[in-house]
Amino acid sequence: MSDDGRSPDDPLSRFLHAETGASAFIREVLTSVLAVALIGLLLFAVSGVWPPMVAVESGSMEPHMERGDLVFITEPDRFSPEFAYGDSGIVTYETGAAEGYGTFGDPGSVVVYHPPGSGGSPIIHRARLHVEEDENWVDRANPDYLPATSCEGVPACPAPYDGFITKGDANAEYDQVSGIAPVVKSEWVRGVARVRVPYLGYVRLVFSEVVLVQADGAGSGLATAAELGGQRTPQPNPSTSGNSSISRGTVL
After folding, report:
1. Which of 122, 169, 175, 213 has the fewest CB atoms below 10 angstroms from its CB?
2. What's the predicted TM-score (pTM) here?
3. Mean pLDDT within 1-26
């Protein structure tokens, strides 16, 4: 008899104590899957969102985030300071500079957002300002990131609705100026970036690229990331966008 009272010939005992063969292999696979599931549940419990991690796809957030970084995100209002805007949980660059609050090397929150109907992965950029419907927000903005000094010469001004003005840290203009995204509504924000792990996201990015290359080679009519959702994401205007690029996050 085994220590748990089972006969050594009992199927469960053989499965639990097998050192070789199919039983041992299946047991190791199940153990690994259970471990991954438990880690996932723990991350979900902490973050409040699923999936709780994204892999950075491009360099528009450099030097604070780089392609291949794995970023852990949480619900916007989780762990947010009391001076976050309303109940959004998001601290803008403007407020962060005034309150001495920063993340990833600069004031304010780095948010993960995805406008409805846009293709591709969610965008990871910093929230710079919160604007209200019909607001002329140019006077509050950094003129270095604008194509003009008056509202009439700036896209998305006056603001069409309440929301956030965003920008990649390495980009020359606000997202709403370069055409990367419209004014970002609070409900479009999937999470706020909290921690980054360098290089670990490359595993997910390489896998995604392999899948796309295989699909293209099979003659499937490979679509760009912006086209996969059935509608193109607004793209930067080459005449005004400078070196703007989009830091997207591949969900894990």
Report:
1. 213
2. 0.72
3. 62
Neighbours of 124 (CB within 10 A): 31
d(C-alpha 189, C-alpha 165), whole Å: 12
Contacts 24+ apart (CB under 8 A), 145-148: 145/171, 145/172, 145/173, 145/174, 145/177, 146/173, 146/174, 146/177, 147/173, 147/177, 147/240
49 close to 60: Cβ distance less than 8 angstroms: no
Cα–Cα distance measured from residue 22 to residue 19, given in angstroms and rounded to the nearest whole number: 9
- The token duo for 197 is 């792990």
Tokens 């089972």 locate to 6
> Is-contact 146 128, C-beta < 8 A?
no
What tokens appear for 37 in the block?
């599931």
Cβ contact 248:112 at 8 Å: no
Amino acid 106: pLDDT: 97
Beta bridge partners of 110: 126
- Does the pLDDT value for residue 47 go beyond 50? yes
Q: pLDDT tens digit string along 156-198?
A: 999 999 999 999 999 999 999 999 999 999 999 999 999 999 9
The amino acid at residue 202 is Y
Residue 183: DSSP 8-state? -
d(CA 100, CA 103): 10
